[in-house]
Amino acid sequence: MPLKILCRVLGMVLCSTALTVYFASHSIGTVVVTTLACSLLLQLAYFASVLFLIWRSSCASRAGQRAEHFGRCKELDTSRQTMMR
């Protein structure tokens, strides 16, 4: 997702949260606190998703390395078998 679209979506979420809280409570202080809490939660969710993607990428690369290593072991076994014949 391009950064411009991400910023627009985050802004719309924060504005809709602020408007909803204001119409429910009619308190500017509550709106500020709730909007700050919402922005903090959004940042934590974004950070957690980035960490998850990094973790998943490292697992995939390790699995690829294992498969590559297994393929080499198989090649060595077949070369040993041909040498023994």
Fold and architecture overview:
This protein has helices at 3-25, 28-84. The radius of gyration is 26 Å and the shape is rod-shaped. The mean pLDDT is 84. The chain has 85 residues and is mainly alpha-helical. The chain has one domain.
Spatial gap, N to C terminus: 58 Å
**Could you tell me the number of beta strands?**
0
Give the helix level as a range of percent.
over 70%
Radius of gyration: 26 Å
- Shape annotation: rod-shaped
Total helical segments: 2
Strand content: under 5%
What is the residue-averaged pLDDT?
A: 84
- How many domains comprise the coordinates? 1
Could you provide a short overview of the structure?
The chain contains 2 helices and no strands. By secondary structure, the protein is mainly alpha-helical. The mean pLDDT is 84.
Which keywords apply here?
94% helix, single chain, mainly alpha, 2 helices, 85 residues
SSE topology sketch:
Elements (H helix, E strand, L loop, with lengths): L2 H23 L2 H57 L1
Helix pairs in contact: 1-2
